[in-house]
Amino acid sequence: MTPPVYGLMAEFATAAELLQATRRAYTEGYRRMDAYSPFPVPDLAEALGVHSDRVALLALTGGLLGGSGAYGLQWWINKIAYPINIGGRPLHSWPSFIIVTFEMAVLFAGIATVFGMLALNGLPMPHHPTFNAPGFEGASRDRFFLCIEAIDPRYDAAGTRAFLEGLNPAKVVEVAN
């Protein structure tokens, strides 16, 4: 019994070949794919179609929640729960609330960023199917890989293999799940 297939992976010798292959795969309609390289390749994220600013939105949401929560808590304590007139100032003295509000906004934005990034990246992931591909250890040294996942709507085992082989890779391998 063979394990289910995760996808097909093509190996390239240079970053330029990987970038060109990724652009061609995206124009052909493949959307569920990922590229692996030993160093950051400029424009590779755009070629993969990754245009996400969800981490920034999570940081903004966390900061707004932390800041408004801190300000609301200080207002409730000083105005409603324990209204003590100290030094003749008003019970709702907003300038004294700013420091704690700012610090809590920064803290919650940082926490939301870290946990949001981990969740969006699918981490922690102790094992990924691409580690099953023969020769994939070269991705950390000198090889470049493009993997088209089997869950892609355009994925067809024979058609995708023919497409990847048409990109002139060093080899195309099937990635077991």
Could you please describe the fold and organization of this structure?
This protein has a four-stranded antiparallel sheet. It has two domains: 5-50 and 129-176, Alpha-Beta Plaits; 54-120, no CATH class. It has helices at 15-27, 44-48, 54-81, 94-120, 157-165; strands spanning 5-12, 33-36, 144-149, 171-176. It has five helices and four strands; from the N terminus they run βαβαααβαβ.
Q: Main sheet?
A: 4 strands, antiparallel
| Count of beta strands | 4
Q: How many structural domains can be distinguished in the coordinates?
A: 2
The CATH level-2 architecture of the largest domain is identified as 2-Layer Sandwich
Helix and strand run? EHEHHHEHE
Low-confidence stretches: none
Task: Tell me the β content.
Answer: 5-15%
Brief sketch in words of this structure:
The chain has 177 residues and is α+β, with helices and mostly antiparallel strands. The chain has two domains: 5-50 and 129-176, Alpha-Beta Plaits (2-Layer Sandwich); 54-120, no CATH class. 46% of the residues lie in helices and 14% in strands.
List the helices and strands and how they pair.
Blueprint (H helix, E strand, L loop, with lengths): L4 E8 L2 H13 L5 E4 L7 H5 L5 H28 L12 H27 L23 E6 L7 H9 L5 E6 L1
Antiparallel strand pairs: 1-3, 1-4, 2-3
Helix pairs in contact: 3-4
Keywords:
177 residues, Alpha-Beta Plaits, 2 domains, four-stranded antiparallel beta sheet, 14% strand
